[in-house]
Amino acid sequence: MAFFRKRQQLVTRHPPLVTLLLMPTRLIISESERGADMFYATRFRAPDPFVYLEHRGKKSLLLSDLEIDRGRREAQVDTVFSFSDLQNELKLRLNHIPCSEEVIAAFVKQQGARRVLVPRDFPLGMACDLKKWGITTTPVKADFFAERAIKTTQEVGALKHALKITEVGMARAHEILKSSTIKKNLRLEWARQPLTSELLRCEIEIAILRAGGIPAGDSIVAGGQQACDPHERGHGPLRANELIVIDLFPRDGKSGYYGDLTRTVVRGKASSAQRHLWETCLAGQEQVLKSLKPGASGKKIHQALQDFFTREGYPTEQKKGRWSGFFHGTGHGLGLEIHDSLRFGKTILKPGHVFTIEPGLYIPGLGGVRHEDVVVITEKGYRLLSKFPKMLEV
Known about the structure:
Elements: H1 17-22, E1 26-30, H2 36-42, E2 50-55, E3 58-63, H3 68-74, E4 79-82, H4 83-94, H5 100-110, E5 115-118, H6 124-132, E6 136-139, H7 153-179, E7 181-182, E8 188-190, E9 193-194, H8 197-210, E10 213-214, E11 220-223, E12 243-248, E13 251-252, E14 261-266, H9 272-291, H10 298-311, E15 317-319, E16 322-324, E17 332-333, E18 340-343, E19 354-357, E20 360-363, E21 367-370, E22 373-377, E23 382-384
Helix pairs in contact: 4-5, 7-8, 9-10
């Protein structure tokens, strides 16, 4: 993890006082296993909430006795303080045992701050309690760390590794489907038992674990009509000659970055209608990829994609109360969260943006298709980070 160190270097070792005064004072109280902002700021993994304060360019942590020794070794901050030491100091001074919020408020004041910026999902109850102890919190409406939107070379490398882990899971899915037996009722059998979405998902996630990933737990393996709902996990027996959507999005257990990859296959023989749907979706993805470059509008690219699908006979519409066609985003940001804050359809592309590109077509009565890959926007266009091949029939 050394390559992540000091990503926000100051221009000089001793910046001018005016620069220090203009630096935002930021407070985060969160765990960092899922709290992406906290992990981004500290590169320290902990399952329970702890306190991060950034004031005048100095980064500090307030940690419990459970985490303080490890925090001093691993956290990429300037100083680590002991929660219990500060609590005991306040107890002697105030003649009572201070509550957690009082300790946190004292910590913030000791660093010279009374007004702090907090993430927009900062707990309301905590904000009210801190106000009682003299700390004013102001939620940031935009991204708490705007720089997270532009991935560094090191972050792109971490994403590529997360995708390699993801591709191990996808390869296992293809291997099992290819070796499965098609029974007379068109149900699939593998290892002398019915091949279900649940069984295939389990085998995929075991492969991801062995490769160093943390499985999502709700990986998508959806066949037939289930594949017409983009976020249907899939359940029950898988059948031959039906479209099967496999969408995997594990996290690299070491770096914390996510991979995201979708492939759609048929075990057996695809019909002409299924093939046309699959090939049209692929052509749509290729159209999007050709449009990727700095300054391009995600909104316009998305609209052009919907128009293309409509011309090919797959308009986005509702039929008998169900959506049909292409009715989700073209892609989303990817990084320390499976859905980083960037939304493709609301973004003007810049070098360093990382997106999934995942057009999908969902036709009740026929099935669903989604092709998903990950790209990084470059100075001249884009670079494809995912490498797993696409094949319709296995």
